[in-house]
Design goal:
Number of strands: 4
Number of domains: 2
Largest sheet: 4 strands, antiparallel
Distance between the termini: 88 Å
Structural class: alpha+beta
Radius of gyration: 29 Å
Number of helices: 5
Strand order of the largest sheet: 1-2-3-4
Order of helices and strands: EEEEHHHHH
């Protein structure tokens, strides 16, 4: 069986680190694997090498894939439960509804709704999705800051569980 020597190099960037993987195979079928990682300041932050016998690349690749996938799952921000807001899963009270309604109506309609919703979420220790949903339930238009829903739009967005506060 005739074998050829070759070199394969692949580069990738992740989290401001440039990784280079170099695979070199000789005529006997041995494969040398070298990995380096250099950060934005030019500091080498990752390095390693291994030599594989003929036919060893595929099983080693499977092993490395499984191991690194498992390791990244342990450290991945996606694998952690997202932080919850202080009042998450707490019932809305009449007082908290009134405070939210008053805060929403105090902003001019020229303020961007997503920004105001994020601000109110922080103030009320709720998620932006919870604030947006609650606005509609207390007769506020979640798309236009400072505006109440009319009967037609209230029906479309699902108002009804909380009576509208006296305005």
């Amino acid at each position: 069986m005739l074998r050829m020597a070759f070199t394969l190099e692949h580069t990738s960037t992740a989290q401001d680190v440039d990784y280079t993987l170099r695979l070199t195979t000789d005529e006997d079928g041995n494969t040398a694997v070298e990995l380096t990682g250099v950060d934005a300041e030019g500091t080498r932050v990752a390095e390693g090498s291994l030599t594989l016998p003929p036919g060893g690349a595929a099983p080693c690749a499977r092993l490395l894939t499984q191991s690194l996938t498992a390791l990244s799952g342990l450290r991945s921000p996606r694998s952690r439960k997202p932080p919850t807001s202080g009042n998450a899963n707490q019932r809305w009270t009449a007082e908290s509804d009134a405070a939210l309604r008053e805060a929403w109506l105090s902003h001019p309609p020229t303020d961007p709704a997503p920004e105001v919703i994020r601000q109110l979420a922080s103030e009320h220790e709720r998620s932006p999705a919870a604030i947006r949903a609650r606005l509609a339930r207390i007769s506020c238009d979640p798309d236009v800051v400072g505006r109440l829903l009319n009967e037609t739009t209230a029906g479309l967005v699902g108002r009804g569980a909380v009576p509208a506060a006296a305005g």
